[in-house]
Structure prediction request, 150 residues.
Amino acid sequence: MNVLTSVAPLRYPARELSGRGWTPARLLAGCLISLMWLPVGFYAAGAAGAGNPPWLADLDGWLYLAGLALGGVPLVWACGRLRRMGYPGAAWMAFGVLAPATVMGSVYVAPLGPLWVAACAAVASLPAWLPYGLGCLDRRTRRRNSRRIA
Prediction:
């Protein structure tokens, strides 16, 4: 037995990429999903209601859908925070309930413009932000109470 191989291993242990770590492909897929769920839902709801929506026929329609993409980010952030807090089922349930409601609300306020749609989507994501806010408030209270005891 060689002294060098008994002290230092010849290979480094393999990193686990399937766990909680981000790979470039997962990061890109997450960014695309977080940006595109509201425009895709908006377009699908418009196609179901109007038959053939004319939004993608010209540059203005594409710019309108790009403006809608930013409106879906708060709900995705809130669901991501819920997942990181240890509630993955609640995150999926919140997204499953709030996303269709956000899409229907965005179709309703669409004639007012993309800023109103973004505001509607931000307001619709507030129920998903509520557990995160209460969790932060609970941590602050526990930290403050622990300082009083010590």
